[in-house]
Amino acid sequence: MYNQITSNKRKTRLLMLIFFCVVIGIGYIFNYLGYGYGAVILAFVISMFMTWLSYFHGDKIALKSAGAKEITKEDNPYVYRMVENLTITAGMPMPRVHIIDSPAMNAFATGRDPEHASIAFTTGIINALENEELEGVAAHELSHVQNLDIRVMTIVIVLVGTIALLSDMFFRMSFFGGRSSENKGAGGVLAIVGIALMILSPIIAEIIKLAISRKREYLADASGSLLTRYPEGLARALEKISASNVPLATANSATAHLFISNPFKGKRVSNIFSTHPPIEDRVKKLRGMA
């Protein structure tokens, strides 16, 4: 378990470093071609502002869009006490607990830090899983909160937004002027580079973002198993979730990465463009832990 945790943290840091290098590289190209660093700073500030709004209000939006209803201990003592016991074990503040009225088997956690966290379960997953299995799911989601995954993904989204804005600016400036006098001779080449950058940079940024998201899933699997000391519980839960073909009707692409499993059942996508690692691989890693 400790090896898995260390490995996934290291890989996340490496992907983040690559991300920063891509942004710095684009900034260097901007400056080299005579645009200066002003556009880079502007794109970063705009992306920061938009992501800041999401950072402080994104949890409420995610819960509302999923149709999650907050519960108290009296509403569902079984689920509430399970989460409460795990948070005591982990030394975390008690998150708000929500239930989504849906036969789909899924769950997610959101919140910018442990003091502002929420965890949500569908009625489908509560009814279908045994106690140890649901506990594994709850521990996985609480680990996302404890590992500050929302904060990590917020930084990633800022970088993705910055790259997208820079690519758009680069393309527009390539065709509508703005170059310094010493670089005006590069017009044709610059236009081609601008088009290539506009097309490729956002795609590369999205692939890196999804790769980081997948690594955080592996990390939450390992951290959650460390919390329960029973990886088999989560492994069995993931197998049951994978076997279900009921999609979550209230899920959307903006919140899909939050869930423990891809909520869009039946829609096959390439692993490189998936927000989640293959269930089979996650189960294999869990059963290989000791």
UniProtKB/TrEMBL annotation:
GO terms for biological process: proteolysis. One of its GO terms (molecular function) is zinc ion binding. It is found in: Cell membrane. Keywords: Cell membrane, Hydrolase, Membrane, Metal-binding, Metalloprotease, Protease, Transmembrane, Transmembrane helix, Zinc. Zn(2+) binds at residues 140, 144, 217. It is a multi-pass membrane protein. Binds 1 zinc ion per subunit. The chain crosses the membrane at residues 12-30, 36-56, 152-173, 185-208. GO terms for cellular component: plasma membrane. It comes from the Bacteria. The active site is at residue 141. Pfam families: Peptidase_M48. Gene3D superfamilies: Metalloproteases ('zincins'), catalytic domain. Its cofactor is Zn(2+). Residues 75-289 form the Peptidase M48 domain. Its EC number is 3.4.24.-. Belongs to the peptidase M48B family. This is Protease HtpX homolog. It comes from Candidatus Magasanikbacteria bacterium GW2011_GWE2_42_7.
